[in-house]
Specification:
The chain has 21 helices and 13 strands. The chain is α/β, with parallel strands linked by helices and about 500 residues long. A three-stranded parallel β-sheet has the order 1-2-3. The structure holds zinc ion (ZN) (2 copies). One zinc ion binds near residues 171, 172, 192, 194 and 196.
Length: about 500
C-alpha cells in the first residue's frame, strides 16, 4: 500500500472530512525542500478523496515572522530590518508590495502549476482580523500553565516574566525585541529594547510565540492533519509541546502528524534558503514537468530523506517514472497533474532529438516519425515536454549530454578512415536504430579496429567530441542519408 493511502485510511477512521495544514515562512526563495511539505500534504489530500473522504488543504504564510538576520542574498541595508515582520519589510527587488509577497507570489504560482489547490491564509491578516484574539487572551491568562508544560516537555527553563506573546513595537517596528509587561481586556502592555514602551491591541498588535501560534491556528482553522519537518517532530520539539497545549489548554485534538525528512542537494547538504543551498521552486518547475516534480517527492516515504541530484540522478528518476506510467503505479498516479497525455517518447530521447532539431517542434516531430513514432500519438505530449527538455539541458544537465553537430574536415587515422568508409557503405535507410548500432561492431570487426575507436570516430565526425548519444538512435534521428553525406565530407 502506498504511504499516502496508509495515512488516508488512518485519517478516515477518525473522520471522513479533513483539513490539512501546511505552512512555510516566506523569508527567502521557497525551494524544492519546502515543496516536500506541500506535495506530501497534497498526496494525502488526493488519497483521502480517492478513499471516498473529503479533504481541503490550507497554506498559512507566516508573514508576521521577523527577519532573523541579513541573509547572504540581501543587500547591506537589510541589517536594519532584522527583527521586523516580513510583511512590513520592503521587497529587496522592488517588484512586490513587501518582502514576504516577493517570495510568496512565485511560490503560489508554482502550486497552481503543480496542481495543488490551497486556501491561502496570511498570518498578518488572520491576526489583524482578530481571529487569534480568543487564543491570545487564553494564552495570556494561562501563561503559567503553558510555561509549565513547555518546561516539562522541553526541559527548557522559562523566566517568571515570560509571556507567550510578541508585541510589535510601534516605534521601531520590531517584534523580537519587546517584552510583555501586562495585559487587560483591551490592551497588551510592553516595553522594547529600543526604549519605547506602550500598548498594542489584540488585533494585529503582535503575534503569539511560535509554539502557541501553531496550536492556536489548529483550532482557528479546524486543522485535522499536518505534515511538518523533522525538526518540529523531534522529542521535545514543537509538536510534542503542541500536543499537550492543544489538549490541556486549547481543548482541541492535535492534528494527525506527518513528519517528513529533508531534501538534500547531492553533495551539498540539506536545502536551506538561509545558506543559499536551494533550487527555487519557481525556477525548478520551468525545467521539469510538474508530474516529475511531484514524483521526486511522492515516490519516497516522508520519513526518508531524499538525496537529490538535478542532473543524471533526475534522469534516472524520469526513466523510472516512464517505465511505471503505463502500469498504473500508485506513485505515478498521485503525481500526474490533471489529465496529461503521456506518449512513449522517453525524456532522454527528446533531449537528443531536441538538440538535433534545434528545439523546433516540427523538426523534432519529423525526426521522431523517422524513428517509428506515430505523429498523432505523440504530437501534443512532445510539444509540452520539449520545452522542459531545453530548459533542463541548459540549467541542470551534465555537460556530457550536450552536443552540437559540426561540419567540415576531421583529422582521422587510416584505421578510422577505413572503418568510416566501410560503415557508411553498409548503412541504409531501412535499418532500425538497433541495427545501426550493431553494425558498428560488425564493421569494426571486419576492418580490424577496436570497437571503442570506431565509436569515437563516429562521434568526432558528428559532434567533434569523443562521446555522444547512443549511436543507433543518434544516426537514425539525424537521418541515415544525411549522416552518409556528413561522413563523406569529413575525411
Ligand atoms: Zn518582488
Ligand atoms: Zn522598539
Amino acid at each position: 500500500m502506498h504511504w499516502a493511502d496508509v495515512i488516508a485510511s488512518e485519517l478516515i477512521e477518525i473522520s471522513s472530512s479533513h483539513r490539512i495544514a501546511t505552512g512555510i515562512s516566506p523569508s527567502g526563495h521557497i525551494h524544492l525542500g519546502n515543496l516536500r511539505e506541500m506535495v506530501t500534504a497534497d498526496a494525502v489530500r488526493r488519497a483521502l478523496i480517492d478513499a471516498g473522504g473529503k479533504a481541503e488543504m490550507i497554506y498559512i504564510a507566516d508573514d508576521l515572522d521577523p527577519l532573523r538576520r541579513r541573509y547572504p542574498f540581501l543587500p547591506e541595508k537589510y541589517s536594519e530590518y532584522v527583527g521586523m515582520p516580513l510583511c512590513n519589510i520592503p521587497d529587496p527587488s522592488g517588484c512586490h508590495e513587501s518582502y514576504s509577497e516577493h517570495f510568496l507570489q512565485p511560490f503560489l504560482e508554482s502550486l497552481e502549476i503543480l496542481g495543488i489547490p490551497v486556501e491561502v491564509r496570511r498570518a498578518s491578516e488572520m491576526y489583524r482580523q482578530g481571529l487569534y484574539e480568543p487564543a491570545i487572551k487564553l494564552s495570556l491568562r494561562e501563561k503559567d500553565k503553558i510555561a509549565q508544560i513547555i518546561r516539562e516537555v522541553t526541559g527548557r527553563e522559562l523566566e517568571d516574566d515570560w509571556y507567550p506573546f510578541m508585541p510589535l513595537c510601534e516605534k521601531c517596528g520590531r517584534i523580537n525585541t519587546t517584552t510583555v509587561t501586562g495585559f487587560d481586556d483591551h490592551w497588551i502592555y510592553y516595553s522594547c529594547k529600543c526604549g519605547n514602551a506602550g500598548r498594542v491591541s489584540y488585533r494585529g498588535g503582535g503575534k503569539l510565540s511560535w509554539r502557541l501560534d501553531w496550536v492556536a491556528r489548529w483550532r482557528i482553522l479546524q486543522i485535522t492533519c499536518e505534515p511538518f519537518g523533522k525538526d518540529h517532530a523531534a522529542a521535545g520539539g514543537s509538536y510534542d509541546t503542541g500536543k499537550r497545549l492543544a489538549r490541556e489548554v486549547f481543548d482541541y485534538p492535535p492534528p494527525y502528524p506527518v513528519p517528513y525528512e529533508w531534501i538534500h542537494l547531492k553533495g551539498k547538504g540539506a536545502m536551506k534558503s538561509s545558506k543559499g543551498i536551494v533550487i527555487p521552486v519557481r525556477e525548478f518547475i520551468e525545467a521539469i514537468p510538474p508530474e516529475i516534480v511531484r514524483y521526486i517527492i511522492i515516490r519516497v516515504k516522508p520519513e526518508k530523506h531524499i538525496d537529490f541530484d538535478p542532473g543524471f540522478g533526475l534522469l534516472e528518476i524520469i526513466d523510472e517514472f516512464e517505465e511505471k506510467i503505463f502500469e498504473r503505479d500508485r506513485s505515478v498516479q498521485l503525481s500526474l497533474v490533471k489529465e496529461v497525455k503521456y506518449s512513449e517518447v522517453p525524456f532522454r530521447h527528446l533531449i537528443v532529438v531536441g538538440q538535433i532539431a534545434n528545439w523546433d517542434t516540427e523538426r523534432t516531430l519529423e525526426i521522431l516519425e523517422r524513428n517509428g513514432y506515430k505523429r498523432n500519438e505523440i504530437a501534443e505530449d512532445v510539444e509540452r515536454r520539449l520545452k522542459y527538455c531545453k530548459v533542463w539541458l541548459e540549467k541542470y544537465a551534465p555537460e556530457t549530454l550536450k552536443f552540437k553537430i559540426i561540419s567540415g574536415k576531421v583529422e582521422l587515422g587510416d584505421e578510422e578512415k577505413k572503418f568510416v568508409e566501410r560503415y557508411s557503405e553498409k548503412l541504409n535507410d531501412n535499418m532500425s536504430a538497433e541495427e545501426i548500432h550493431t553494425l558498428v561492431y560488425e564493421v569494426a570487426k571486419e576492418v580490424g579496429i577496436d570497437a571503442n575507436k570506431a565509436f569515437k570516430a563516429i562521434y568526432r565526425i558528428l559532434v567533434g567530441k569523443e562521446q555522444g548519444p547512443r549511436v543507433g538512435y543518434f544516426i537514425k534521428s539525424l537521418g541515415v542519408d544525411w549522416v552518409k553525406k556528413r561522413f563523406h565530407e569529413a575525411y
